[in-house]
Design a protein that fits this description.
5 helices; four-stranded parallel sheet; single chain; alpha/beta; Rossmann fold; about 170 residues
């Protein structure tokens, strides 16, 4: 399917621009609702795990100085579930690969405990011109686009530049 995928990827920049536009209201609402939230619990699986880790550590911790916990959906029920409380902000990054069922299970459990569960699901975004069999492969790009808008809105509502650091590349270490 390489030739087919390569041909479909030609339209990806425009598709992701549309994803960003569609994500704008959700991103702004999340940022407004969480401008004072200082702890977020992030869960993702499959090919979204790398992005889950990156967003937790590099964006929320490094760039916004927020405390986070990140866990792969396959590991969630091996201890991490005990950290949830009714006011815990839980971000579920839901993709379209074979680990979706694991993340569905985490989402269902988290919603039983916390009143603050936000699901960012790549299925919510149409990808015109991309075949269904390739959507799962592109989930990290879609989620990065969506969360890029969230990041910019967090920057705005928190008055905390994404470029501001206290220690990283500021001090010798």
């Amino acid at each position: 399917g390489y030739e087919k995928l390569a041909g479909e990827l030609a339209g990806l920049p425009g598709i992701l621009l549309d994803v960003a536009r569609q994500a704008e209201p959700t991103a702004a609402a999340f940022a407004e609702a969480h401008k004072d939230t200082d702890y977020h619990f992030l869960v993702g699986g499959g090919n979204l795990w790398g992005f889950t880790y990156l967003y937790s550590m590099c964006i929320l911790e490094e760039m916004q100085w927020l405390r986070t916990t990140r866990v792969h959906s396959a590991e969630f029920f091996h201890g991490s579930l005990e950290l949830l409380e009714e006011d815990t902000s839980v971000l579920v990054f839901q993709g379209e690969d074979e680990t979706r069922a694991l993340t569905d299970r985490v989402e269902a459990f988290a919603k039983r405990i916390s009143r603050d569960v936000t699901v960012f699901d790549t299925r919510d975004y149409p990808l015109p011109g991309i075949s269904p069999e390739f959507r799962g492969l592109l989930a990290p790009l879609v989620l990065d686009t969506v969360m890029g808008r969230v990041s910019k809105h967090l920057e705005r509502v928190r008055g905390h530049s994404l470029d501001l650091r206290r220690y990283y590349r500021v001090m010798d270490y």
